[in-house]
Amino acid sequence: MCNQDKTPLLDAITEFIETKPAYFRIPGHRLEHGISSKWTDKVGKEVFAYDVTETPFTDDLHSPEGAIEEAQELLSELYHADKSFFLVNGTTCGNEAMLLSAAFEGQEVMIARNAHKSAMMGLIMSGAKPVYVMPEILDEWGLQGGITSKQVRRTFEEHPKCRALFLVSPSYYGITSDLKAIADVCHEYGALLLVDEAHGVGVFGRDGRGVCDHFGLTDEVDLIMGTFSKSFASLGGFVAADSDTINWIRHTCRSYIFQASCTPASAAAALEALHIFQNEPERQENLWKITNYALKQFKEAGFEIGDTESPIIPLYVRDAAKTFEVTKLAFDKGVFINPVIPPACAPQDTLVRVALMATHTREQVDRCVSILVDSFKEAGVLK
After folding, report:
1. Which single residue of 4, 34, 190, 245 has CA 20 to 30 Å from 288?
2. How many Cβ atoms from other residues are within 10 Å of residue 320's Cβ?
3. What CATH number is given to the structural domain containing 304?
């Protein structure tokens, strides 16, 4: 068992800073010396000293032997994986790397039609042929849901040579698929199961391990991709799988080979977030309490939110111009939300997205709902 309280990257950067090196390499601020006082007066100088690239102290992402290797071992143990590696470009790089590792040119890969655009880029780079599965439509809302095991089985019957299934769960609208039933079908047909957990890590499962852990399927999923830019509040991401698969990705996947090393400060921040997930479970409990409260408030206020099951709450607008209008109106009233428009969604499915955190309070949710009701009414979306 690894000691999950260790912070190898943070310790390595601190050790490096304490040597007080004469710095003649990137980044250009040279460990705080080239930073404008407009920045340092607000956030201090020390934070920039932790913004360093590869050094003998901070290890090399592409051939780790020290702090990065130790940090990746901690992540592997958490996800019950043989091996993990850190990414610089988060979800996009992870999805491309997974697909490049799963299929060769001409092979078929099953993929939900509303998958992230980075998955499409992975298919293009690999030369694999997509076999699309349309998400089920939720009759009550007229919205796209997840994909079902029946759909997966039917698609395998029509395309028995499908090499893998790429699945996003939870979806970008907070909807989860029945991973257990889907995994059983994939195993029956000898296909790989690749899961994009960008919105699940830090939210679902024990200590925030994600949807795969929530359903007890970590050992039955072939590749798990997560991002550090959401719950981890950092940059980059990771892929977890068996050792052979990870070594294959590291040596063959173009989206990974030619990326620069993850900044040690970003990796250290993500690792510290991991420790918080493990040592402060009350945060995850608070997140679900505030999520359930917010879901109830939005529904009672008349918002169209679909069947979301996560702290990522979609508020459908169904008009691109009004989506921007609602976003601006809410911002002017003190609420900052994300607009989602094409090509990230279909033209008829535009929305704004509310992302809840463990630190939000009921009072803040009430204020948010009240302002969004006014903004939606002003834009003519709510009556």
Report:
1. 4
2. 16
3. 3.90.1150.10
In a domain, 383, yes or no: no
Q: What are the angstrom distances between the C-alpha of 114 and each of 36, 96, 146, 343, 354?
A: 44, 16, 9, 11, 20
pLDDT in tens, 55-82: 667 787 777 888 888 888 888 887 777 8
Distance, CA of 306 to CA of 316 (rounded, Å): 8
How far is residue 61's CA from residue 157's CA, in Å, rounded to a whole number? 41
Domain end call among 229, 251, 279: 279
For the record, the structure tokens of 282 come out as 């009350």
Report how far residue 129's alpha carbon sits from residue 106's, in angstroms, rounded to the nearest whole number: 6
What is the strand order of the sheet 164-168 is part of?
83-87, 237-241, 223-227, 192-196, 164-168, 108-112, 129-133
pLDDT cut 90: percent of the chain above it: 25
Same domain, 265 and 297: no
CATH number, domain with residue 85: 3.40.640.10
Provide CB contacts within 8 A for 305, sequence distance 6+. 295, 298, 299, 313, 314, 315, 316
Instruction: Give the Cα separation of 260 and 23 in Å (integer).
Output: 19
Residues near 332 by Cβ (< 8 Å), separated by ≥ 6? none
Check whether residue 289 and residue 272 sit in a common domain. no
Domain match, 80 and 117 both:
yes
Q: Is the pTM of this model over 0.85?
A: no
Last residue of a domain, which of 230, 252, 279? 279
Residue 37 lies inside a defined structural domain of this protein: no
Quote the DSSP letter at residue 319: -
Strands 83-87 and 108-112: unpaired
What tens digit of pLDDT does each residue of 327-351 get? 999 999 999 998 998 877 778 889 9
Q: What is the pLDDT of residue 265?
A: 76
Q: Does one domain contain both 80 and 214? A: yes
- With left for phi above 0 and alpha for psi between -120 and 50, is residue 240 left, alpha or beta? beta
Residues 206 and 96 in one domain: yes
Give me the numbers of helices (H) and strands (E) for the chain, helices first please: 15, 12
Classify residue 25: in a domain, yes or no.
Answer: no
